[in-house]
Amino acid sequence: MVFVGRNDTATSTDDISLTAEGSATTLSYHATIEFHGAAKLAAPIAKAVFEKVGADTEKSLKEILGAST
């Protein structure tokens, strides 16, 4: 599944896939943000913020879904 959101300052793409692995399922989630125009100047700062958000989201998903790794 791919979700794309666009506005004047950015395009956000979320790519989610599920893969069967024996009796388990692997969930892959990749999110990208491309800034447009003057918003590109904020990209280095936003990168640090979104890396933290991504790490927190990964941790939460593992807890909610009961991931073993």
Describe the structure.
With 69 residues, the protein is α+β, with helices and mostly antiparallel strands. It has one domain. Helix content is 33%, strand content 42%. It is built from one helix and three strands. Strands 1-2-3 form a three-stranded antiparallel beta sheet, with no helix packed on it. The chain starts with a strand and ends with a helix.
Task: Indicate the topology.
Elements: E1 2-6, E2 10-21, E3 24-35, H1 43-65
Antiparallel strand pairs: 1-2, 2-3
Q: How would a textbook summarize the main sheet?
A: 3 strands, antiparallel
Instruction: State mean pLDDT (0 to 100 scale).
Output: 90
Number of domains: 1
Gross morphology? elongated
Helix content, binned percent: 25-40%
Question: What ranges have pLDDT less than 50 throughout 5 or more consecutive residues?
Answer: none
Q: Determine the strand fraction and express it as a percent band.
A: 35-45%
Number of helices: 1
What keywords describe this structure?
single chain, 69 residues, alpha+beta, three-stranded antiparallel beta sheet, 1 helix, 42% strand, elongated
Brief overview, please?
With about 70 residues, this protein is α+β, with helices and mostly antiparallel strands. The protein has one domain (about 1-65). The chain is about 35% helix and about 40% strand.
